[in-house]
Design a protein that fits this description.
Length: about 325
């Protein structure tokens, strides 16, 4: 793949690809209506109502259920390492035109073997062109890797979650975690859904568009926070240092630049240097091409590479000036 000279000015992201928080309250209403219609139309054999019915007793457990930590553990490596959450969706990505080769089972394997620490599936058909069965397909594909190296990745169900029913659907699909948007939910609903996720044994990735939202999410006990804001990495670094305590996993969304260049790789290196545990990426994994040197696995590898933005550009392939920060002992672990 190609990358421009170091960190040129970014072109504004396409409005169609703005993070979900940009759509907030109207989208929340539409989603509530959609979930209500779904619940009303379920066949009597569907397990969703029964699972939802267990929620009150799960919530009344004392002490209250805590989050599991499979996703957080997978994303939290030693300092100086950046993990990648690779998101799958069909709408608005370079996958849209690939037909069968963009099927969940194929992309799931590509990103697992490519070295991602977690997979995410956007489970909103209108926004992402996929649905909860695609989450289940990712989970099933990952299960085929049980006992292997790398083993199954935790799968995040990335819907605009506004009701407990969606958390229950994620659970039934086998997801390890759900996404929650601080801006779309507001504090009270965010608290309710964080509790519902923990009660169902799921983790939650709380997307935050401002430092205030980060503080709010951490105050509510969020264990994984994803900053989704257009600010420069230096600003996000300040938010992380001031407002994300040790023990809370710090993730940052890298939204795709609307061009064929892979400036996102250098953004990942900057996030690693800023102390983030993980980057959440989507279209930039699929926009370069389907050649082995360009596809998602190659880009994940480049994002995780121990390269330095001071000495090395993503377009260089020689490795000269590579700024590895590890000791041999770290590499051997
Ligand atoms: O931004 C949010 O608040 C949010 C909430 C819940 C789930 C996901 C959220 N944002 C991420 C996204 O909307 C997409 O993952 C993102 O647009 C991917 O972008 P791109 O690679 O630029 O297509």
């Amino acid at each position: 793949f190609t990358s421009p000279a170091l960190l040129p000015p970014r072109s504004p992201r396409s409005p169609a690809l703005l993070p979900l928080r940009a759509v907030s309250v109207l989208a929340r209403r539409a989603k509530e209506a959609e979930v209500a219609a779904l619940l009303a139309s379920l066949p009597v054999t569907d397990p969703l109502p029964a699972l939802l019915g267990t929620l009150p007793s799960l919530l009344s457990a004392r002490p209250p259920p805590a989050f599991p930590s499979r996703l957080r553990d997978s994303l939290t490596k030693r300092r100086g390492n950046l993990s990648i959450v690779a998101e799958y969706r069909l709408k608005g990505t370079g996958l849209a035109e690939l037909g069968g080769s963009a099927a969940p089972a194929i992309v799931s394997k590509l990103i697992r073997v490519g070295g991602a620490a977690a997979a995410a599936v956007m489970a909103d058909p209108r926004m992402g062109g996929c649905d909860y069965p695609d989450v289940a397909a990712f989970v099933a594909e990952n299960e085929t890797a049980r006992g292997g190296v790398p083993g199954p990745l935790p799968v995040v169900s990335s819907d605009l979650v506004v009701t407990e029913a969606q958390v229950a659907r994620a659970k039934l699909a086998g997801a390890a975690a759900v996404t929650l948007s601080a801006a779309a939910l507001g504090k009270e609903l965010l608290k309710t859904l964080l509790e519902a996720a923990a009660a169902f044994g799921l983790e939650a990735v709380v997307f935050c568009g401002s430092e205030e939202e980060v503080v709010g999410a951490v105050g509510l006990g969020a264990t994984i926070v994803c900053i989704a804001a257009e600010e420069d990495v230096e600003v996000k670094k300040e938010w992380r240092e001031r407002s994300i305590p040790e023990g809370v996993c710090a993730v940052c969304l890298i939204s795709s630049a609307p061009d064929a260049l892979l400036t996102e790789v250098e953004e990942a290196w900057r996030l690693r240097d800023a102390g983030f545990n993980a980057a959440w990426v989507c279209d930039c994994l699929y926009k370069a091409g389907a050649d082995p040197a360009e596809q998602a696995g190659a880009i994940i590898g480049a994002m995780k590479a121990k390269s330095s933005v001071k000495w090395f550009s993503a377009k260089g392939k020689s490795g000269r000036g590579e700024g590895a920060k590890e000791y041999l002992g770290d590499i051997m672990m």
